Amino acid sequence: MAAPLDGMGGLGSLGATEALSVAQALSLPAEAYGNDPNLEMMWAMKAYQHAEVYFNLISSVDPGILKLTRTDDVIYKAFREEFPELQIAILDPEELKSPAAKEKWRPFCMQFETQVEDFNYGTLLRLDSSKDYSEENSIFATRIQFYAIEIARNREGCNNVIFRRKSASS
């Protein structure tokens, strides 16, 4: 996977002290920052790093056996009860971002506030599950939306193509 943030000194270029500073800065309340472009860059780098780790994971391990959280079963059950018809293989951004979708997603997400650490962190989510992360194939979502959709993709076989493609090339 190409690293679009490498040219901007991605997280991999940080030393241990700098990485610790980034982690500490990201743990402060949002009100402490205003609209700091450096903070936005740190969030983008952290989201990209999470995406890269996750994609490497589903490329290396059969997605059907992955467990992403301690509460995968609860998340999956609640997700499919609330969104039984949501097409997860190829997501329509409107299903996540339209005003009507946001109203439906908000109570779903909030039920995991105390169960899933960092449930509302910004995370990159692939639109087409058969493809890698790219600018055209990624959207920002909350961490719980990412978990709900990716747990469902893993259980329903949507991510198998990624694993098979990597296994075939090895």
Give the fraction of residues assigned to helices. 40-55%
Distance between the termini: 15 Å
CATH top level label: Mainly Alpha
Q: Radius of gyration, rounded?
A: 16 Å
Order of helices and strands: HHHHHEEHH
Q: Which residues sit in consecutive blocks of at least 5 with pLDDT less than 50?
A: 1-14
Largest sheet: 2 strands, antiparallel
Quick one: CATH superfamily? Answer: yst0336 like domain
Query: Number of folding domains?
Result: 1
- CATH fold node name: yst0336 like fold
Strand content: 5-15%
Q: What structural category arises from helix and sheet content?
A: mainly alpha
What is the level-2 CATH architecture name? Orthogonal Bundle
Please report the number of helical segments: 7
Global mean pLDDT: 83
Describe, in plain words, how this protein is organized in 3D:
This protein has 170 residues and is mainly alpha-helical. It has one domain (6-169): yst0336 like domain (yst0336 like fold). It is built from seven helices and two strands. The chain has helices at residues 16-26, 37-60, 72-82, 94-97, 99-110, 143-155, 160-169, and strands spanning 122-126, 138-142. The protein has a two-stranded antiparallel sheet. α3 (72-82) crosses α6 (143-155). The longest helix has 24 residues, at 37-60. It starts with 15 loop residues before the first helix and ends with a helix. Residues 1-14 have low confidence and may be disordered.
What would the keywords be for this entry?
170 residues, mainly alpha, yst0336 like fold, two-stranded antiparallel sheet, 50% helix, Polysacc_synth_dom, Polysaccharide biosynthesis domain-containing protein
